[in-house]
């Protein structure tokens, strides 16, 4: 599945999963990626991206687990892979990395997170 990036890069209601906590966290993820793109040399922006991402994945996984969500394992694997990649990044971030992170978030929410809508 391939969803286009939104410009300006921010959350809009087409990303809504209808769990307030997760929607709020998705908004912070967009902002964290946006901040990294705006200041590619900022180690603080990168470390903030890693921490809001880790926090969100942990909350989302907790809700999936609590609901006995069927595709938990595959979903967690996608999270682990992305988190592993961004934790290994060093500043300054290049265009390819920014593009990858922007694309991953859009596609992960619409292609993967959307599958749990109504099930958590
Ligand atoms: Fe997810
Ligand atoms: Fe998510």
Automatic annotation (TrEMBL):
InterPro entries: Haemerythrin (IPR002063), Haemerythrin_Fe_BS (IPR016131), Hemerythrin (IPR050669), Hemerythrin-like (IPR012312), Hemerythrin-like_sf (IPR035938), Hemerythrin_metal-bd (IPR012827). It comes from the Eukaryota. CDD domains: Hemerythrin. Fe cation 2 binds at residues 60, 75, 79, 108, 113. Residues 19-119 form the Hemerythrin-like domain. PROSITE patterns: HEMERYTHRINS (PS00550). GO terms for molecular function: iron ion binding. Pfam families: Hemerythrin. Keywords: Iron, Metal-binding. Fe cation 1 binds at residues 26, 56, 60, 113. Gene3D superfamilies: Hemerythrin-like. Belongs to the hemerythrin family. This is Hemerythrin. It comes from Nephtys incisa.
């Amino acid at each position: 599945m391939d969803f286009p990036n939104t410009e300006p890069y921010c959350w809009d209601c087409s990303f809504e999963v209808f769990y307030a906590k997760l929607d709020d966290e998705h908004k912070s993820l967009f902002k964290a990626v946006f901040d990294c793109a705006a200041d590619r040399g900022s180690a603080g922006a990168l470390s903030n991206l890693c921490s809001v991402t880790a926090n969100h994945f942990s909350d989302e996984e907790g809700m999936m687990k609590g609901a006995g969500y069927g595709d938990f394992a595959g979903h967690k694997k996608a999270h682990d892979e992305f988190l592993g990649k961004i934790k290994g990044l060093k500043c300054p971030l290049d265009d390819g990395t920014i593009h990858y992170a922007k694309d991953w978030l859009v596609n992960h929410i619409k292609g993967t997170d959307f599958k749990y809508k109504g099930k958590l």
